[in-house]
Amino acid sequence: MFDLPTYQALLANVDAAATNNEKGERFEELCQYLLSELDGVKVEGRDAVMNAEEIDIVLWNAQSEEVLKPFENIILVECKNWSVAVGAPALDSFISKLRRRTMKTGIFIAANGVTGDFLNGNSNNGAIEIIKAALQEGIRVIILNRADLDAINSLNDLRTLIRKRYCGLFIHKLFNN
C-alpha cells in the first residue's frame, strides 16, 4: 500500500546521495517503490545485466491496474538521475532494448527530462524526435521527470500522470499536464 511518508523519505534519500552511483541507486529505489505500488505490478528484476546491456527495472504487469492495461505483461523501466536532460542516444538505446525484445511499451524516468520539446515548437530536436520515430513503429515510451515525481502524493496522482503521458504520445504533447 502506497505510503506517502515512505515515498517522501525515498525522495529525500535521492537528494542526500553523495556519489553518482548512490544517486543512481537511490533514484532506481524510488522508481521501483512507486511503480510496484500499482495494482498487479511486481518487480521481477533490477539492474538485469545481459551481454552488452543493462535493464534498470523489469516489472511484471498482471493487467489489473486500469492505467497499465495498454502496456504489455513485462514493462522495462529506465531510470536516469542525471543533472542534465537526457539526449537522443540514451533514449535510442532504451528503445533498442525494447525493439530487441519485440516489446511495444516502456517507461523512461529522467530526473531532468529529455532533450527536445513539443510544447514550445522545438519538436525536431533531441530525444523527443526519437520518441516520435519509435511511435511510427508502434513502440511507445512514456517519459516521467523529477518534477512529476515530486508532485505525486497518491497512487491516483501517478495513475493520472501515466494516463496523460500515454495519451500525450499520440497527440505529440508529452509534457502537458
How would you describe this structure in keywords?
42% helix; alpha/beta; Trna Endonuclease, Chain: A, domain 1; 177 residues; 5 strands; 6 helices
Protein described:
The chain is an alpha/beta fold and 177 residues long. It has one domain (4-169): Trna Endonuclease, Chain: A, domain 1 (3-Layer(aba) Sandwich). The chain has six helices and five strands. It has helices at residues 4-16, 20-36, 88-100, 127-136, 146-151, 155-170; strands spanning 41-49, 54-61, 74-80, 105-110, 140-144. Strands 1-2-3-4-5 form a five-stranded mixed β-sheet, sandwiched between helices. Helix 1 runs antiparallel to helix 2 (20-36) and helix 3 (88-100) runs parallel beside helix 4 (127-136). The radius of gyration is 15 Å and the shape is globular.
How many β-strand stretches?
5
Radius of gyration: 15 Å
Strand content: 15-25%
CATH class annotation = Alpha Beta
Find the CATH topology. Trna Endonuclease, Chain: A, domain 1
Tell me the overall shape.
Answer: globular
How would you classify the helix and strand content by structural class? alpha/beta
Topology, element by element:
Elements: H1 4-16, H2 20-36, E1 41-49, E2 54-61, E3 74-80, H3 88-100, E4 105-110, H4 127-136, E5 140-144, H5 146-151, H6 155-170
Parallel strand pairs: 3-4, 4-5
Antiparallel strand pairs: 1-2, 2-3
Helix pairs in contact: 1-2, 3-4
Brief sketch in words of this structure:
The chain is 42% helix and 20% strand. By secondary structure, it is α/β, with parallel strands linked by helices. The radius of gyration is 15 Å and the shape is globular.
